[in-house]
Amino acid sequence: MFLQTLKKRNPDLIRTAVEWHQAKLIPTNTFLFDLDTIQDNAQAIYRAKVKNGLETYIMTKQHNRNPMINKVALQEGLNATVCVDEQCCHMMARYSVATGHVGHLNQIPFREIPKVLKLRPQVWTVFSTEQAKAVSDAAGQLGMKQDILLRVYRKGDIFFSGQEGGFRFDELLTKAREIMTYPNVNIVGTVSFPCFKYNGSEGEVAEPSPNMATIREAADLLRDKLGIEIKQINAPGNTSSITFPILKAAGATHVEPGHGLLGTTPNHRLYPDLPERPSYCYVTEITHKYEGKAYAHGGGLWQDIFDNNFQYKALVGSDPSTILNNEFHWDRISQIIDYHAPLLEGDRVKIGDTAIFAFRTQMQMTRSWVAIATGLRRGKPKLVGLFDNACHMIDPKTMEALPLETAREIIDSVTAGYAH
After folding, report:
1. Which residues in 183-339 belong to E strands, given as ranges?
2. pTM (two decimals)
């Protein structure tokens, strides 16, 4: 999906990936990140944030909650993080990264609520009075009050399959009045997802989804009818710097860049000169051939809903100096587990060659490694971190998890080098 953009705007990342993979510095099935580009992208988002008067929470699932990426972005002024689920909250805490927003994609299970409250998230989204009461009860036991957002929907709003839920607009006032009787939660705003409708092809208009109007009008209703002080109209969904003015005009106060930080929203494929640049690639290898196809090892492959008809490609080879010219079509197949990526014209490659992919991903759903590179902008790339899919920092020589204090020291040392 982003291969051509990556070749144009960050070719040294591709060359570094091939060199390191062939030298066995990084394992097969690795997402390799360019931390220099992450910083550049965070700066672009910060400038857009300030210009448009918006606040930001960093969506962390796309980069598998990586602490180096989070800390560099936070140093650039991007406020706090979004935790999709309770595991993500604990991964943030492991590396002393503050949790900003929880609950708007996955509701926190009742049994986990006290543990997550102890991490003191800034805001907590609830879909029901039951969830709000459970949060209030647990907060009371901890001697605290929790600010909450109400997820609101009405007919015509958009949901991705499996992500439906929230308060019906026509029942909002009744439900909000009930929640206002719970002593240890404060309603501070509204939220939905997705709040931005992306253009699927060049020339189409990118615009807010119907959900955006719903949560803006819901916030007005809560303010005007119940006297609630609205601090947030939170509008997540494929946010990047070019969508900030559109969302601001639509009424948003808070946005949640995820793929925007990584330079990989759908618009970054259609318009490859946007402020953010692609910051990662997926690195694997050819393991075998079958009937004219070459099969690349899987583990991190991802089926993107935005581009079901898009022709994906990969780069294959063992020589960094020629890799950019070696494109192969990815014969995408339906498979529950991504064991392999079949590539056409397999006779042109060798078993053991490196395969480079560039696509939108949800890394928290993969079983991949995450490697972090610095120094690419100076032409001196250095591997500074390797993490497993549970976000433990790994010793690349032994592939064992480093002691937590050692990992924290390395992470803090690396990210301090990006501080102003």
Report:
1. 185-191, 196-197, 207-208, 232-234, 254-255, 280-290, 293-297, 313-317, 327-329
2. 0.95
